[in-house]
């Protein structure tokens, strides 16, 4: 099935019932020895490991949470470029997205209460290849920046609630 088929099928389902546009995701995270975490994507039954490098008390057996956050942003960008290129009829041969982020550990460790525990700066570099004009790829970039769900998480405050059980 092509991406344009997916887009059109989703449009028809949402037009028929707007509730079809609402989707939920759920992951369960379980601490293992050290700083290792086993993550289970509950609805689709996928699992992966998260760990820290030795300098942060881990065994370096997997990427750490902030690396996964950058990976989530980069991979969402790749997918969103593909979808919007298909939607706009823009030929796209390849997409490569590199995401870099700077984090000051003063915030994470509580060494300074004036420093955020999260990223202070995130930079996205996108390489697109294909026969379309630079202008069409610039238009595509604007569409992706407007519609990428994980980029939205990075750019905008999202309500989060925590319940201790």
From TrEMBL:
Superkingdom of source: Bacteria
Coiled-coil regions listed: none
Pfam families reported in the protein's UniProt record: OsmC (PF02566)
Protein name: OsmC family protein
Organism of this sequence: Amycolatopsis iheyensis
